[in-house]
Design brief:
By secondary structure, the chain is mainly α. The chain is built from 14 helices and 2 strands.
């Protein structure tokens, strides 16, 4: 009896009393304010990152993924501007393979890309190498080389179109002073492509130079000091230290410039004036982008224009694949 009284009063339980049951692991506990707050906190940790990134994916799906897929579907149909699609399968792609205009535009895109990208990147490397040294007014020169990039395409192209004018352009006037005949910078194929490439080179050289400059400033100075102790000149240091150290950046600019050349549109269209959409009177500088625009909005063949767009996409994917392959080879060489 005393033992039972002690158990009721908070003392040690009686040996005959049944053992108290503790909650089993995993047993559901009664809900309360603290439990609800804990669940809300866990849901907040899981859902908040998705809420933050959701606007990007929604915007990309609406303005990027859907137009891409819809254009791919249109490329398999015969679609006239304002008409209903008619299924044609790969007819638009086979039509491009048999089209002289397509192969001409593809060749023009390649040649303009080469004669604009190679000089552009070489001059950008030289400018970045000069700006990497301690010069007076380095800040001014760094801003100055970026000024052409800040200029609008329309303004730059119109100025260069006047410079390369066949009748009264400054370029032909300068050539005449040294005894050369005037060059037809508009109707001839190679002069017109050189003029357009000059515009592209002028606009993008400073931009790439600043990218190279940022990469050069990340090169350890110990490498230059060691090369100088070995008797290497500045030119040898540039070839043996700078170029290998910024090789990934050079590869990046090559890929970006190639993509930009594949999508070249504004410069040739504005340079050609009234015949800019067709790439000149003889399609001498018509690029793939101009051909796509002409097929879609001049002739109204949206299916063929969509096929050209997907061919351009495949070319860009090919360029990206080559970049990945070259980067992998470089990593293996560095690792070996």
């Amino acid at each position: 009896m005393a033992t039972s009284v002690r158990a009721r009063n908070g003392g040690s339980p009686s040996p005959d009393a049944p053992p108290s049951r503790s909650p089993r692991p995993g047993a559901r506990r009664p809900d309360g304010p603290s439990a609800r707050r804990s669940r809300l906190y866990r849901w907040d940790l899981k859902a908040t990152p998705y809420v933050f990134v959701a606007p990007f994916f929604l915007t990309f799906a609406a303005f990027g993924l859907f137009p891409l897929l819809y254009t791919g579907w249109l490329s398999l149909n015969r679609v006239e501007l304002g008409g209903d699609p008619q299924w044609r399968g790969l007819e638009n792609y086979t039509g491009l393979a048999d089209s002289d205009f397509f192969w001409n535009a593809l060749l023009n895109t390649f040649t303009i890309g080469v004669i604009s990208t190679v000089p552009q990147l070489l001059m950008a490397l030289g400018l970045a190498h000069l700006l990497n040294y301690k010069l007076r007014g380095r800040g001014f020169f760094r801003v100055a080389v970026l000024a052409p990039y800040a200029t609008s395409i329309a303004a730059a192209t119109l100025v260069f179109a006047q410079l390369f004018n066949t009748d009264y352009g400054l370029i032909n006037s300068a050539l005449g002073l040294v005894g050369f005949d005037p060059v037809d910078w508009e109707s001839s194929k190679w002069p017109a492509q050189i003029a357009i490439s000059t515009i592209v080179t002028w606009r993008w050289t400073g931009y790439n130079a600043l990218i190279y400059l940022a990469a050069m400033q990340a090169v350890p100075q110990d490498l230059y000091e060691a090369a100088a102790l070995d008797g290497a000149s500045r030119w040898r240091q540039f070839l043996s230290v700078t170029i290998p150290s910024i090789r990934p950046t050079i590869l990046f600019t090559v890929i970006v410039s190639t993509i930009g050349a594949t999508q070249l549109f504004g410069e040739p269209m504005l340079y050609g004036g009234s015949v800019g959409i067709s790439g000149g009177s003889g399609n001498q500088f018509q690029t793939l982008s101009l051909l796509m625009y002409e097929k879609g909005w001049v002739t109204g063949a949206l299916g063929q224009a969509s096929a050209i767009a997907w061919v351009m996409l495949l070319l860009l994917l090919l360029v990206g694949g080559v970049q990945s392959l070259v980067a992998r080879v470089n990593r293996k060489k560095l690792g070996g």
